[in-house]
Amino acid sequence: MEKAHKDILTTAETAKLLGVSVRTAQLLIEGGSVPSWKTPGGHRRVYRADIMGLIERPAPGSPFSSATVVIVAPSERLAHYDRLFAAVPECTAEIFDDVHRALFAIGSMRPHAIIVDLEPGDAERETLLHSLAANPSLGHSRIVVVAAAGTMAGVDLPRRVAPVEAAEQAAAAIRISLVDAGAPTPPVSDTLFPIALNESQRLVALERSGLLDTLPEEAFDRLTWLAARNLDAPIALLTLLTPTRQWFKSRVGLDTPETSRSWAFCNHTILQKGVFSVEDLPSDPRFADNPAVAGALGFRFYAGAPVHDDEGFVVGSLCIIDRRRRTLDGGETQTLLALAAMASDEVRLRAIERQLRNTLRKAERQAPGRDHTLALEPTGGARSQDRV
Question: Ranges of Basic and acidic residues compositional bias (predicted)?
């Protein structure tokens, strides 16, 4: 019984173990980001095993520049890793069976973590591990090797490589390592909505995107128009979620430019890898009392897909809303995912443009005698006319 008691944690004990505030731990538990149950007295409890990490968390103040995880695994195990990381909404997984393609991807990004699935006698992946561990540009990245018991016998493993015995352990360790070092700004109301383990990092990524409170842009307006048109929906939105607001970068069929974040169905969408859909909002206890459902707006149906930035963080969603109960078929689901992917591409393109502008400014400072500069026009073509 003593062991069982130690394996069960209160909210305060969870907060202490994760290194976050009690408020943050409460939001994670109440929102469903950490599996939990209620005692007869109404108190939440969690299992220690569900929140324990198998790799060390970074020290407070360490940079969180990426939410991308690169996985190198044998071809027959790719689908298994894909399923595992589909359940980890805080990160974007790039999965490879070819070492050289993986190295190219790693070289073009700053991954949060790299997982190498090692089979007995796999000299190429052993060499990869040593190369990654010795690369100073990857000093911020966690490196995990997955190898069955006994596989690592006789292998000189670099000190910074964390060994685990199963892919499931690696996924659990990575998710815990994504927990915020500081508490996110709490919602302004008592309504608890689900938030990501790395919500503070996601909010930094949103601010870094430069999209919040900007003018309409044709590139995004085309996507919401296509969503409404092709999916036969009266309302289509490109939403960005701040600590307190749901702000619409683009909107079709809705007059208001924003709502309270507590109204946002997209709080659930940004914790999904695919489409989050609710066929009948009034009959869903999560949304029945939502002002957009119970009030004059009368929303009945919602479907949304996440929109990512260049570092793999979810900054918002592309969604459609209807005032009638309905479902999406397979083709419509794929259409919404494709449009959300195009929106993600637009977000990433703007990051590339900012990087190029910064490079040009640095070059100009280093060569003050230059008689010309290169001007870049915004890709999306900012405009001021009213949206539909």
Answer: 360-374
Where along the chain do its domains lie? 1-52, 58-177, 199-353
Residue located via tokens 């999406």: 328
In DSSP terms, 321 is beta-bridged to 235, 302
Supply φ then ψ for residue 115, to 5 degrees: -115, 130
Q: What is the DSSP letter of 97?
A: S
- DSSP string covering 143-199: EEEE--TTTTTT----TTEEEESSHHHHHHHHHHHTS-SSPPPPPSSS------TTH
Question: Among 181, 66, 73, which Cα is nearest to 117's?
Answer: 73
CB-based contacts of 286: which residues, under 8 Å, 6+ apart?
Answer: 268
**CATH number, span 58-177:** 3.40.50.2300
Q: What is the DSSP string of 137-150?
A: GGTTSEEEEE--TT
Question: Phi first, then psi: what are they for 44, rounded to 5°?
Answer: -80, 140
pLDDT category at 51 given cuts 50, 70, 90 is low
What mean pLDDT comes out for the span 12-32? 64
Q: What is the pLDDT of residues 35-50, one digit of tens each?
A: 678 888 888 887 777 6
N-to-C CA span, the chain? 63
Structure letter (DSSP) for residue 75: G
Among the listed residues 46, 42, 43, the one whose alpha carbon sits nearest the alpha carbon of residue 18: 46
Mean pLDDT of the chain: 81
Cross-strand bridge partners of residue 382: 217
Contacts of 110 (CB under 8 A, 6+ apart): 65, 66, 68, 140, 141, 311
Question: Residue 330 and residue 334: Cα distance in Å, rounded?
Answer: 6
* CATH architecture of residue range(s) 1-52: Orthogonal Bundle (1.10)
pLDDT single digits (tens) 100-150 = 999 988 887 778 999 999 988 888 988 898 889 888 778 788 999 998 877
CATH superfamily, region 199-353? GAF domain (3.30.450.40)
> What tokens does 260 get?
């309270």
Measured CA to CA, the distance from residue 34 to residue 26 in angstroms comes to 10
The first and second tokens of residue 239, run together, are 């939403």
Taking the CB of residue 259, how many other CB atoms lie within 10 A of it?
18
pLDDT at 265: 97
